[in-house]
Amino acid sequence: MRTPLLNRLLPFAALLALAAFSFSGSDYYTGLVVKIMIYAIFALSLQLLVGGAGLVSLGHAAFFGIGAYVAALLSPESEAAGLWWLLPAALLAAAAYALVTGALALRTRGVYFIMVTLAFSQMAYYVFHDTKIGGGSDGIYLYFRPELSLGGWMPFDLSNGTTFYFFVLACLALAWGFLALLRRSPFGAALAGIRINEQRMRAAGYSTYPYKLAAYVIGATLAGLAGFLFALKDGFVTPELLAWEQSGLVLLMVILGGMASLGGAVLGTVTMVLLQELFQSQELFGDYARHWHLPLGLAIIALVALLPNGLAGLPAQWRERRHARTADASRKAAREAITPARAQGKASASRLPIQGERHV
């Protein structure tokens, strides 16, 4: 009973720790945590596809970039836009692109699905990279963060760093809570069945295509939310947000943390971002920090090889090894106890009877 209770309390403890960290006073570390939280939302959106429905996508960055570009393109240069319409516009744009591309991509399976999603992502990338829609390869600036004004009254000001920190934290908590409820719903159970055996789900009377398309659109919407927050954080958007490297990065986060759980996606995000910051540190590695991709790749290979179930599966892996050692020790002790008894029995059976004993 302790493990389920602990698993339920850990997300709340993590949220409280993140809320307390905002008062650390360090702009660099609070900015780093904001980046981690945004990428955690991005990774959670992909975990719904990979861990929930068994759909491995290499085009998820398209929705991330679309959410960011909508935030930048629709924001005026002279004043702040309204949050009440800018955020839904970013989410709807990402969802609309997912609905169109997913309707086609989900007609394929396996490696073909991966390649089709990659192709759609690269199409969106080159639209922003090779045209003047979003400033071309130079990108576009977002000069003002949006405001939420209710009759002239603003409940919060996103231009304030602390307020923006808690806004991102609230978005992460809502995304986590929404996905946790979704996993426990009949829709989540159907997605799990599709991931395990789609043919059996079809034989049971389920039309699997609408379920997969709905999951694809929901994941894209959450990715659009992450992209929207990323644009607000940096105030600058480039086509590289839609590149396939971004899709590969978030897929690595999900795999590294463990595809089977929401916590795994968050753990993978924290690990990946911190490893990047570590190997890029010139204070630790000097000029070798320019080649940070090499040690990062080696670290990822080592972690994946040593942790086949991801970071989230590490406690279960330790328990299995401990139980295996205990079982081996028990079997060894049993063999050691049986061997002398058998030897004694054999010695007694081979002994010749002495005078007065009956022959057997």
TrEMBL record:
**Subcellular localization:** Cell membrane
Top-rank lineage group of the source organism: Bacteria
Q: Where is it found, in Gene Ontology cellular component terms? A: plasma membrane
Stretches with biased composition (Basic and acidic residues): 325-335
Alphabetized, the UniProt keywords read: Cell membrane, Membrane, Transmembrane, Transmembrane helix
Q: Where is this region: Disordered?
A: 325-360
TM segment ranges: 32-50, 57-76, 82-104, 111-128, 163-182, 209-230, 250-275, 296-318
Stretches assigned to coiled coil:
none
Q: What is its main location?
A: membrane
Q: Which GO terms describe its molecular function?
A: branched-chain amino acid transmembrane transporter activity
Q: Which InterPro entries match?
A: ABC_transp_permease, LivM-like
Signal peptide bounds = none
Q: How does it sit in the membrane?
A: Multi-pass membrane protein
Protein name (Swiss-Prot/TrEMBL)? Branched-chain amino acid ABC transporter permease
Q: Which organism is it from?
A: Achromobacter spanius
